[in-house]
Specification:
single chain, about 280 residues, mainly alpha, Ferritin, 11 helices
Length: about 280
Amino acid sequence: MRDFTPPDLAIRPRDRRFGRGARTARWWLGGDPVATAFYNALSVTFPKGEAFFVESVRHFRDGTPARLAGEIAAFTRQEVLHSREHVAFNRRVAEAGYDVSRLEAAVDERLAFVRAKPPIASLAATMALEHFTAILAHALLADPRHLAAADAESAALWRWHSIEEIEHKGVAYDTWLHATKDWPRFKRWSVKSKVMLLVTRNFLVDRTAGILDLLRQDGLTGPRVWARMAWFAFARPGMMRRIMGAWGAFFLPGFHPWRHDDRALIAAADSAYQDARLPLAA
């Protein structure tokens, strides 16, 4: 299979700390409880989820080509930094008065289910979730409206995370291709497609449940809240609507995350993080 990963791609961790010593407003995204709950519910998944991604990819690093091995190492460094910063962000969410214990328990339950299966299942789930996070990151960077009303430090955190999700979006997929190189093409497509459908179902169910949990803590329940959530997700700013095409592309024969080279989005946003770049690994 052709290698669509750009030959000049550099996966470079940026060691930035966000919001230290500051309190984050309860509704930090423009005073909007629904928008705030969307990002808070997503952030709660990251520390344990990204540790799982690293574990899943590193399990298959032995025997990979030198270039991919280097990309796995850089991917690991980026994900470790993401986990650190979202631990800090989630602490500020708790300090703002939210109980995130039920959301964390739901993450633990999902990860325990996958870890009980063979390691290739964890890699498949990681490969699908990494595509999901990359297309969300693309949507976030492509439309400034998503974070326009956020406080400066929270906006900087989410843009930083999005830059690096795009930058390493092919690593889990290339590791999956290496790990399944002896599989028939149809089997590989069939398994990855079924896993993406399951991952998508779980993502939508779990994140919706998490958002509703956080909104209940604000005293917001009922049909009007559901309508506000649907409007936010699919109308304005409509992130979920905007990723549908990129999500569907995953199922096409010959798909690869780098068939769409969107590094221009990184270039547009990366200047704020130049000083935080770590040296490339030798």
